[in-house]
Write a structure and sequence with these properties.
By secondary structure, the protein is of the alpha+beta class. The chain contains 5 helices and 21 strands. The protein has helices spanning about 1-25, 100-150, 155-180, 180-200, 245-250; strands spanning about 40-45, 45-50, 55-70, 75-80, 85, 90-95, 205, 210-215, 220-225, 230-245, 255-260, 265-275, 285-290, 300-305, 310-320, 325, 330-335, 340-350, 355-360, 365, 380-385.
């Protein structure tokens, strides 16, 4: 009896489930819900003349920076400056022990004076030798004439001629000596001048007015000509070095005025150097912009606005009108009160405008805000235009 009752309960439950399914089945012809109408703000598409700029940044550096070194080897005897000290052009920064160089100068002065004296002596001797030679030639001519008359012996005539030859040899030697006198004197003057310059080179002088940025040696250190000892900078003006693309460098020219921003400072600068041939590794061009150094300081992070070529009669829409989806760009155009999602090809961005290369025409009306919330084919009500 219990088994039969359980079977009746199962049958009743199945029948009840079937009945519920029949009663709750969906209507075969449901009514489609009407799409909601979106209220939109549009802007008419039109052409613009745009002046695009590109912002590049770097750090300000001194207009001039020199790593100074001695032209001689030697031991540092005096250190006249310290980092941060401002110096004028020609100020002595460091000094080497100069005793050996002064001795070399004194030796060169003595040699020069001796050679000058020898040259004066040789010139006087040459004048005397020429006079003696002239007298001897006259004597030989006289004896030769007497010899023809048999008034003197042949030996006396030969002696006179030998003496004439000796005098001619003396004249030739003195003439050669005095002929090269200027050259010998010039060589000694060169040595003297070099020795004098070496004495001056024992003092390292500032090649320009500026500030000492670093002193790398102490008194007593031995230095060589290849060793940097002082770093000198000129901060009256500062340079900003940036790297730019080829298309940007084509729009720039040397001397062009630009605006540089450093912290909250807005500095008027100009382009002083422009690399026309790009770096073979990066294919970028180096640009150097110079600004006044009275307000800014070296090391500050700065940004410069560099102008590109103007864009004439280009279609542009507000940036807020462009929808980016999976690497593609779209805008919503209102056509007969319906939104149409249009794919567009974009160009450069200029301030708050996006250049559109293709996909739109002048006079089209596009939605300018909230584009991520809309869909293609959605009814639209235009609330106004921008």
């Amino acid at each position: 009896m219990g088994k039969r009752l359980r079977s009746l309960v199962v049958i009743a439950l199945v029948a009840l489930s079937v009945l519920l399914l029949i009663l709750t089945r969906p209507d075969r012809t449901p009514e489609l819900a009407e799409a909601a109408i979106s209220n939109v703000i549009v802007t008419p598409v039109q052409t613009h003349k745009l002046l695009p700029q590109e912002s590049v940044s770097g750090r300000l550096e001194p207009m001039r920076k020199s790593a100074l070194h001695f032209e001689l080897s030697g031991q540092v005897s005096e250190r006249q400056v310290e980092p941060g000290q401002r110096v004028d052009t020609g100020a002595v920064l460091l000094t080497l022990v100069a005793d050996d160089y002064r001795d070399a100068l004194a030796t060169a002065e003595v040699q020069l004076a001796l050679e000058a004296s020898n040259i004066r002596r040789d010139r006087e001797l040459l004048a005397l030798a020429r006079r003696n030679l002239a007298l001897q030639k006259a004597e030989v001519a006289r004896l030769d004439k007497l010899g023809k008359d048999s008034l003197i012996s042949q030996s006396r005539l030969d002696e006179a001629r030998i003496k004439q030859l000796q005098l001619e040899s003396d004249v030739a030697q003195l003439r050669a000596s005095t002929g090269t006198a200027e050259s010998r004197l010039g060589l000694l003057e060169t040595e003297h001048n070099r020795a004098a310059r070496d004495v001056l080179r024992t003092g390292l002088k500032a090649p320009f007015a500026g500030a000492v940025n670093a002193v790398r040696v102490q008194v007593g250190d031995y230095v060589t000509p290849s060793q940097p000892v002082v770093e000198l900078i000129d901060t009256t003006e500062l340079d900003l070095y940036v790297e730019v693309r080829g298309e940007l460098v084509q729009a720039l020219m040397q001397g062009q005025r630009v605006t540089v921003t450093a912290d909250e400072l807005h500095l008027e600068g100009h382009i002083v150097a422009l690399q026309l041939d790009p770096d073979p590794a990066t294919f970028t061009h180096a640009v150097r912009v110079r600004v006044p150094g009275d307000e800014a300081r070296p090391g500050m992070l700065a940004r410069v606005e560099l102008p590109l070529h103007p864009l004439e009669d280009v279609i542009a829409v507000p940036l807020t009108a462009v929808l980016l989806d999976q690497g593609r760009a779209y805008v919503f155009k209102v056509v007969d009160d319906v939104l149409a999602r249009i794919e567009v090809r974009t160009g450069p961005r200029v301030d708050d405008l996006q250049v559109i290369r293709s996909g739109l025409a002048v006079g089209d009306r596009v939605v300018v805000s909230g584009v991520a919330a809309y869909s293609d084919g959605q009814p639209a009500h235009i609330l106004g235009e921008q």
